[in-house]
Amino acid sequence: MNPQPKPSIYHTGIRRRSFLKGMLEAGAFSAAASSPLFAQAARPKGDKVRLACCGIGNQGGNDIKSFYATGLCEIVALCDTDMGAPHTLGTLKKFPKVPQFQDFRKMLDKMDKDIDAVCIGVPDFSHFPIAMLAMSMGKHVFVEKPMAHTFQEVELMMQAELKYKVATQMGNQGHSEGNYFQFKAWTDAGIIKNVTKITAFMNSGRRWHGMNVSNLPPKEPTPPTLDWDTWLATAQFHEYNRKYINGDWRCWYDFGNGALGDWGAHIFDTAHEFLHLGLPEEINSLRCDGPNDFIFPQASTLCFKFPKREGMPPLDLTWYDGVKNLPPLPDSFGKAVVDANIPAPSAGKIETKASAPGKVIYGDDLTFKGGSHGSTLKIIPESKAKDMASMLPEVPKSSSNHYANFLLACKGEEKCRSSFAVAGPLSQVMVLGVIAQRRNAQLKFDRITKQITNDKIANALLVGPPPRKDWAQFYQL
């Protein structure tokens, strides 16, 4: 890792001609490339949104199924760097006649006029280039959580959303379910008020738990079906190893954002939005078991300190991950809040017990317990909940699930609930937490300049290492 931050490129631009020239040199576009880059989004011409999908197995495959089930879209293109690998076969069987690509740049170039929106269900580190190119071409974008791998990438994606006037949605699906509408209704009614402390936890087993790593894994033969160079995207070059792919990328700092990036957006997203948390002014690493330069800790505890804002008091959000790193819970907590629709983590399973993913929110005179995704809050203890029952406001029903909400926004009929303007600062909070895990330190953060002021190496991690030569131009779109 280069400890020196490269010059800021938040506000630089790039001309279409020079961008296409760079892509031609990289071999991504044909010599006759004529994509109307830097266009602003138009509403879909037909009744259905024409959706191109990048990442068609694992979570990307689940996203495709969910989009198709809405009846609001037509799947017009499929893209995966390992097209035909076992995890892609279900999607390919369901859509056998849809054009297939291994490189998103070629897909967007060739099918530009046939695509209204792009779904991005690929590893964290490669969200950014696909989203930036798609937005610059006027495509609406749905991207899985977290929005991107680095703080700077999220910042640039938020700016692109405004610049290109596209509909955007991050894949924290609970943001269109019960907890979203309940949290808003309860804050509007003053039921949730003057919150000073939140405990958030994810104690299920993860892929890197038990791993003993002292270096990057050795080179292995690259599968003939895999376009490894495109898989790496903007990341620094790594030799291929099977321990990087099919979900295992989440273990590595170079590619993923760990348990926090995976589950934070499902656990404290509504608190972040409706309590107007924004960015913290301090992030403290309180516990870090098995600190490592390559993979995430076996367990960590982080405290995010948010200042006073809009009449609300300062708030400490403490995050716990690791199987045995259980948070302190109120005596009245009882069983965890578990929704049958919540998926299990990529390794391990969710149990109906206090250590299932969840949160405790400490308000002025009320305490709330909650789970993950769309599961609703409960007032504790139960006796207090019964006393409050007649005072609770009616919670409206969702007009659309997260996927339908995005597609309707593409058509101009709804507003995205987890647009980049909403999901961006949330994602940046999680990225700051990852940096605190890497440094195992207390970090001071300037909310105005968006810089870490007490640790030069940590501050450089806001940007990360420079992208490979052929990928640098994505940061200038």
Can you tell me about this structure?
With 477 residues, the protein is of the alpha/beta class. The protein has a domain at 178-215 and 249-397: Dihydrodipicolinate Reductase, domain 2 (2-Layer Sandwich). The chain is built from 14 helices and 15 strands. The strands form 2 sheets. It has a 9-stranded mixed sheet with strand order 13-12-11-7-10-9-8-14-15. Strand 5, helix 6 and strand 6 form a beta-alpha-beta unit. Helix 5 runs parallel beside helix 6 and helix 6 (151-164) packs antiparallel against helix 13. The longest helix is centred in the C-terminal third of the chain and has 20 residues, at 420-439.
The CATH class assignment of one domain is Alpha Beta
Spatial strand sequence of the major β-sheet? 13-12-11-7-10-9-8-14-15
Q: Which value, in Å, is the CA radius of gyration? A: 22 Å
Shape, principal axes of CA atoms: globular
Brief rundown of the structure:
With 477 residues, the protein is an alpha/beta fold. It has helices at 16-26, 58-69, 89-94, 104-110, 127-136, 151-164, 178-188, 228-232, 258-267, 269-274, 382-388, 402-410, 420-439, 456-461, and strands spanning 49-54, 73-79, 100-101, 117-120, 140-143, 168-170, 197-202, 282-289, 299-306, 315-321, 358-362, 367-370, 378-380, 442-446, 451-452. The protein has a domain at 178-215 and 249-397: Dihydrodipicolinate Reductase, domain 2.
Provide tags for this entry.
six-stranded parallel sheet; Dihydrodipicolinate Reductase, domain 2; single chain; disordered N terminus; nine-stranded mixed sheet; globular; alpha/beta; 477 residues; 14 helices
